[in-house]
Amino acid sequence: MAxxxxxxxxxGRDMRDLVLGMSDGLTVPFALAAGIxxxxxxxxxxxxxxxxxxxxxxxxxxxxxxLAARTEAEHYQAEERRELRETxxxxxxxxxxxxxxFAGFGxxxxxxxxxxxxxxxxxxxxxxxxxxxxxNLEKPHEGAAPRSALCVGSGYALGGIIPLFPYVILSSVQxxxxxxxxxxxxxxxxxxxxxxxxxRTRVLSGALGSAxxxxxAAGAAYGLTHVFLSRM
Length: 232
Hints:
- The chain is mainly alpha-helical.
- The chain has helices spanning 4-37, 43-89, 91-104, 109-120, 123-134, 144-169, 173-198, 203-230.
- It has one domain (11-230).
- Helix 1 runs antiparallel to helix 2, helix 3 packs across helix 5 and helix 7 (173-198) runs antiparallel to helix 8.
- The relative contact order is 0.18.
């Protein structure tokens, strides 16, 4: 039972990273393929360029996820060292801060004093209390950085395959673009709804927002390509 909260946190972070990776993976290759379609390139060229972008994007997103997780861990460690130092250098102030936290929950003064004595009797528990309830920081898991890199990168690659697949099965660029737009908007809507559920926001607005964002990105890329080619 003691490991359940940690597993729950890891699943939540993994899902968050996977959703964020897939969201970018759907949007960027979709916009790229639509833009190249505006140049009337062949389906083979679109697939080749899209595949190269997916590989590069997945690596970039994975590295970004790794660095973000490492930065989060380093920030936690720095704050933890600061809190530990302050319990040695200014213990009276840290004790007062513990009491303020309990007071914020509406505890009576007698119970605040008793609970504070229990907390400050163990320095490790004292520091953990301050990190979680004063600074609102959760201790990152040791393997969070590589897990984040894997989830974000694989999510990007998985999402990027969807808008390119129609160009693989259809020889006509325009037919491929139409089918790609349809399946990608559906995928973005589903993913947006899922992401909204993960982050506990409105599912419908999340679905519509993701679909509209993808459509605008593709439309902008397609339109700009036409404008560029018309001026050549």
